[in-house]
Amino acid sequence: MVLFKKVDKLVALAVLSAVLIVWTLLVGLDAFKALVGEVSDIGKGDYQIGSALIYILLTIPRRSYEWFGNAALIGALLGLGTLAASGELTALRAAGLSKLRICGSVVLSLALLTMAVAVVGETIGPAGDQKGQAIALQAKANGITLARDFGVWARDGDAVIHARQGTMQQTAQGREVQLSDVRVFEFTPQGQLSSISVAKRAEHSHGAWLMHDVRTSVFSGGEAHSTTDATRRWQSGLDPRMLALSIIHPEYLPLRDLHRNIVYRQRNQQDAQVFQMAYWGRLFWPLNVLMLVLCALPFAFGTLRTGGLGKRLFIGIVIAVTWYFLQRAVVNLAAVYGMDLMLANLLPAVAMAVVALVYFRRAS
Fold this sequence. Notes:
By secondary structure, this protein is an alpha+beta fold. The protein has twelve helices and seven strands. A seven-stranded antiparallel sheet has the order 1-2-3-4-5-6-7. A hairpin with a 2-residue loop joins strand 2 and strand 3. Helix 2 (49-58) packs antiparallel against helix 6, helix 3 (60-85) packs across helix 6 (124-140) and helix 10 packs across helix 11 (309-336). The chain starts with a helix and ends with a helix. 32% of the residues are buried.
């Protein structure tokens, strides 16, 4: 038992230190790349270098969550490489510890950190990203105020717009923004409500906004007059490019918000597939990270004596990229053919566990 405790501590220190170094490097490079991309927007409206720095800093938790899987994989390989270079891994094998026991220590050392990162991805990650986007968008929007709490909110002059949902889709003409359950509140210069327009949806195409299934109530002289239109052009200075940026990507939403969106769309007979894919992918994220690390470690054992840092790093990158594309292919095929998305997200992790079990049985 004492030996096992010492082994776990030794492996944990080597692996976690390597993971933290790789993680910091990957997140730092991603943040720096994003900051360089924001430089071109400096000068738009009130957007200055200070706003850009605040935006990048607030998105650091979300970027940390996204890059942790790759950092865990590469760091675990490099951590074992450190033990091999010092001869400690050879000593552990000579003491009778199997490859499975050593890899189990690696996964165990990463499990708590993985769960902590998952909590970050559910709490301060989405919150910080939304706050940063709101600050950047408000500074860039040139008088149009955007917010994203409880749907999409925007202010355009004397009008306030609220949409329950905002989605984007790629068309031949470019990215198209569509809003659902739209309400437009128009006010007089004195701040009095002059009209309310309620539309089932609104979309921006061919340079103009078009509202569908519109009911408009106009208030004048203590009376209200209502009209209905199948379609109506919406005169608004709301920039769809800025609005598209204000729409949160489903993969950035926490589980509770994804579930709420799924229930809402299913209740209104709308397509919820994008949110379901993000929901199950996020739910099984910790399992996928740990299984990916466990499956990659046997490759490291085969190269510890013959390869150095570069080879282990290359192995980690190849495995991470291959795994990413294979997993996305399975999930996308399931979406296309109407298969269960929960099973599609769980299947790759189960397959990796089976492969690892077969390997360790033969290696023992």
